[in-house]
Each structure stands twice: as C-alpha cells, then as structure tokens.
Amino acid sequence: MVVGVYLDLKTDPDWFKLIGEYASKLKRMSGVLKVIALRNPEERIYESNVLVVVSKLNMPLRRKIVEAASKAEEELGVEGLSPLICSEKEKTIIESFQEEGTQVPA
C-alpha cells in the first residue's frame, strides 16, 4: 500500500499541530524516511500513536527521535506523542500504521 500525504481534517487541532511540529523536527534528521500518525493521541498500535520509519536503526538516531518528540511537546505545551521507531524493512508494522494512520510529510 502506498499512501502519499493524508490528513484527517477532523483530527483534534492540538494533535494536528503537534504532529506537524514533530514531523518538521524529524525532517531535518538524516535517515528518517516516514512519519505515520494515528488520528488521535489515544489510539494505539503496539502501544504507540506515531510511527517513525528509518533507513537503518541505531541508538544515536533513536535518541534524537525521542528527544524531538519531547521538544515538540514542550514547545507547543501539548503532550501525547508515543513514537515507535522501525526500519523500512519492518513491513508488517508499517502496514498496520498505514491502514489506521495519517502519513505526514517528514
């Protein structure tokens, strides 16, 4: 399944802004390929509501991705990000999020 950019405009405005801010921070990171967010912060797949797909998993990149979530929440004063990080090879996880989520430009 290939999804371009799909934005559910009925999404809570604060969640929408938070995801946008988070994606903006991730866009600057080498190795981040996709961000797929669920429609609201309460929804969960694998205990997460945002999937960050990377070209290659490594601990330094994982830390930066988690730190970016905290910074986005702090800057907007909104909490709720629970990112799951996977490599582009983990098709089952990616497909699960694509079926339920909203892919945002990273």
What does this structure look like?
With 106 residues, the chain is an alpha+beta fold. It has one domain (13-104): GMP Synthetase, Chain A, domain 3 (2-Layer Sandwich). It is 41% helix and 18% strand. The chain has 3 helices and 4 strands, in the order αββαβαβ. It has helices spanning 13-27, 59-76, 91-100, and strands at 32-37, 50-54, 83-87, 102-104. It has a 4-stranded mixed β-sheet, sandwiched between helices. The two termini are 18 Å apart. 30% of the residues are buried.
Q: Tell me the span between the first and last alpha carbons.
A: 18 Å
Whole-number count of domains: 1
Largest sheet: 4 strands, mixed
Helix-and-strand structural type? alpha+beta
Low-confidence stretches: none
The tally of beta strands, per DSSP, is 4
* Helix content range: 40-55%
In N-to-C order, the SSE pattern is: HEEHEHE
Q: How many helical elements?
A: 3
